[in-house]
Automatic annotation (TrEMBL):
<dbReference type="InterPro" id="IPR002347">
    <property type="entry name" value="SDR_fam"/>
</dbReference>
<dbReference type="GO" id="GO:0016020">
    <property type="term" value="C:membrane"/>
</dbReference>
<dbReference type="GO" id="GO:0016491">
    <property type="term" value="F:oxidoreductase activity"/>
</dbReference>
<dbReference type="InterPro" id="IPR036291">
    <property type="entry name" value="NAD(P)-bd_dom_sf"/>
</dbReference>
<keyword id="KW-0560">Oxidoreductase</keyword>
<protein>
    <submittedName>
        <fullName>Putative short-chain dehydrogenase</fullName>
    </submittedName>
</protein>
<comment type="similarity">
    <text>Belongs to the short-chain dehydrogenases/reductases (SDR) family.</text>
</comment>
<dbReference type="Pfam" id="PF00106">
    <property type="entry name" value="adh_short"/>
</dbReference>
Length: 221
């Protein structure tokens, strides 16, 4: 069973469609119940959806309580963007950026480790190439993504010897609705589609008996 966060749009929705087509059992979550329902309507097979705010510990607990068994894979795609020169950014929007990205990831990983650290489970954390390279005009966005990268790398040390594995994913620019609410206007015609990234990511998520792919960078060509 695969749990996908941020599944109401973008990469999360594209992954849900690909895995759903293959007949995988899915639990999808996102903040927008109506958009989640639209994604579910495009998938045949065993798929459930629960709207949840991952900044709320009780909603994360309720989401995981709904599972009859530990998931095989969790793909955490939820997040948001906010860009612009630092002096022009608004404090409330910065706070929202931190909550939607860093706080949500900390709280989700906390609960996953608490419940499943002794289970063989892949936890895939989708970040951005902004977690690898500094970018002008994206200072606060880079800050939260770098923080999430530090979180993932630190938790790997805490989970050493555990069957739970953390996989970091760093995709480049995608042509999705992400940009409409980010405060950054740009031409995305040359960006990757969410479908393209989903296909590449799925192909890269392969484990062997004595190894796994720990870090995945998906650049646009």
């Amino acid at each position: 069973m695969i749990l996908i966060t941020g599944a109401s749009s973008g990469l999360g929705a594209a992954l849900a469609n690909i895995y759903g087509t293959e007949g995988q059992s899915l639990l999808l979550t996102g903040r927008n119940e109506q958009r989640l329902a639209r994604v579910v309507s495009t998938i045949s097979g065993e798929v459930n959806a629960i709207a949840a705010d991952l900044c709320q510990p009780r909603e994360i607990s309720a989401l995981l309580d709904s599972l009859s068994q530990a998931p095989d894979t969790v793909i955490h795609c939820a997040g948001s963007g906010y860009f612009g020169a630092i002096e022009q950014q608004q404090p409330d929007s910065i706070e929202k950026l931190i909550h939607n990205n860093l706080t949500a990831t900390i709280l989700l990983l906390r609960e996953l480790v608490k419940r499943y650290r002794n289970n063989k489970i892949n936890v895939v954390v989708v970040m951005s190439t902004a977690a690898q390279v500094a970018k002008a005009g994206e200072s606060t966005y880079c800050a939260v993504k770098w923080a999430i990268r530090g979180l993932v790398e630190s938790l790997r040390l805490e989970l050493k010897g555990s069957p739970m594995k953390l996989i970091a994913v760093y995709p480049g620019g995608m042509a999705t609705d992400f940009w409409k609410t980010s405060g950054k206007e740009l031409d995305t015609s040359g960006f990757m589609t969410a479908q393209e990234v989903a296909i590449m990511l799925k192909q890269a998520l392969v484990n062997a008996d004595h190894g796994y792919v720990s870090d995945i960078t998906i650049n646009r060509g």
